[in-house]
């Protein structure tokens, strides 16, 4: 073995999930796809579409980087990243909810 040998992935090769036509899919079908990938199925249909799309991009970017992680490891990284982003969104007050942003009353 040489030092320049490429790193090898343990387990089956990681595949990018196929691109889906979400407008033709029912919510139940999308949930089934997410479950098969080991991804959360909570939220509205658009939340699930966003999650699937983000997962596809995440896997593609990791493969482009030459990651040797397994599908399970990448899925765990993605789910952790999603939870952290959701927590950050909840922790930051929305701009529309700032004090004083409501229209002043006339008082008459």
From TrEMBL:
Transmembrane segments: none annotated. Residues 78-108 are annotated as: Disordered. It holds the Pfam family SAP. This is SAP domain-containing protein. It comes from the Eukaryota. It comes from Chlamydomonas chlamydogama. Residues 78-94 have a biased composition (Low complexity). Residues 22-56 form the SAP domain.
